[in-house]
Fold each of these.
Amino acid sequence: MTSPQNSTQSQAFYRNQESTLSEEPNSIKTGVSDGHPKVALENRKFVCNGKAVDIGRKPTASRLLKAFIQTHGHALNKGQIMEAMGGESLMELQGRSKRFLSCKSQSLNRLISRLRSDFRILFRSYAPEGIQWFYYDQVESIWLLYKLPGEGANRKLYA
């Protein structure tokens, strides 16, 4: 059950996401033609086709998006995502207990689920119609930042 305060905060968050973009020297940009959205990470804002969303208060989400944008094809495996989220490599995580790894995995799923629903709302008129944010490809066992409708799950990821 959501409290009126949480509801008001959520509405304020979505209302205040419009912003203008500035060219920053430390920005990460990528974008291709043929219907793919142009995504970038500029300082503390994630940008999709000109719409900027402030993610400064979400450092884990910021690290995760940065990792997605920096990889070719915007694809990460679970180990890369865990490393982006918490700074521990997959080798370091192997010595941990099953309970710890289960909690990390659950946190990962929660974060991605939340980002997926936020992006669906925030970029609904800025991204191509039918885009799936944070798509999991079961065949390749990788997460994609996005998947376009009609596009095969295993698009060319590695050049």
Amino acid sequence: MLLIFYLAFTLANLSFCQESSAEQIKEKIANVSSEKLQQKILLTDSQTIQVKNLLINYLTDNNKQESNLELLNKINSVLTDRQKSKFEIIKNEWWSFVEKEMESLVKK
């Protein structure tokens, strides 16, 4: 009986750790990616937080109802006109960086 309880507890704990680890990976991707964008187009702290939150929402959407184009449009909506111009120039490069981050952190 004690063994069954121990196994159930261990499996529940392992499942929690995997979920927690997945959330940490998504947060790390969002942090690194939003900071990179902040450096490239000079986001304010508020804009950086907004971009980070948009990325976290995108990454946690298990159904992937939102396309990357929709995400990029949402990011574009928090930018000033000057930043939008810069974002247009670098968005493909930046999105490639985001995708590589997702791939590299998921492999770990």
Amino acid sequence: MTRQEQMAQLDSMIAAYHHNHNRLECIAHDMRKKAEAITRRDRPKKRQYGRNSATWTGADEAYFLERFFDLEDERRIEIVTLSAKMTRQAAAIEALVSKLGLNDPPGLPGVPLVYPGSGIR
């Protein structure tokens, strides 16, 4: 395999990694939106403006997190599968970068946290 073919393979691997990263981000976004919609439906207020409004209480946030984790449990297999795939892809990319002797390896986003807020469940 020529160097040009190896670089094309590296570009392809990086594109696949980014595709999976974006897919995981979409899953997280969908779960957050659905959990917020469920919370707004189940805990009605006179005015509903979403999580960032002044009417969103601590109890609303707790209810939102419960719904979010329920949704996360439903999609756990997909999330774990994508995360493992991204880990393998990152290792393969690092191996190819090392083999090619590149001084400036491509920056890859890490596996994103699916959980809302700052911490892991």
Amino acid sequence: MIFAVYDFYKYWFHKGIYSDIGLEKAGFVLASEGLLPILEKVKCGCVFVHRRNSFLSWLVMYYTGPGIISHCVNMFEGGILYDMTTQGGIRHHISDYFDGKTYIQLIDIPAQKSNIEKMKTSYEIIIPGSKFAWKKVFLFWLAIITGADVEYRIRYSLDIILVLLFLFLLCLPYLAAQVFIATVLLIYIAIVLFNKLLRKVPGE
């Protein structure tokens, strides 16, 4: 877990790409009341969010990166957001992100008024009250760490291999546990090699 721990350290203590300067270079600004007059005039847009001091947000960035986007949400005129959170789908206002530590980047989406209304209506029906897709997220994560998704990075495998080797050493007095861990390790390596060398991964 060396790579994960190091990246989490940078995230938690705002180093490198996670620093104020790094975020600003990437086009992010601190979400604050001063932005409200601009944000509320946007007819249709996508807000990229970088949340600080959130383990779940860091997990998203680490396994879909390297990147600094922990969340994205659709925004309509008046600063209204249709947001899918881990608690479920909600309709709320952009000012909920004005907590003094969240950074945002706005992408204005040019669209005709009729299309904007159709999008807003569909989100109003689908998002509020809907459940968060934990199962899909878990399967997506499995696909990433096993090389079955384009987001795969070698550091994910190194993290897992190092953890399994550490557990193997901890279980020196227990042969059955060592055999189990070694089997898991070999199966994992075989799956990754199959996905990266023999299987065509969509998006690559």
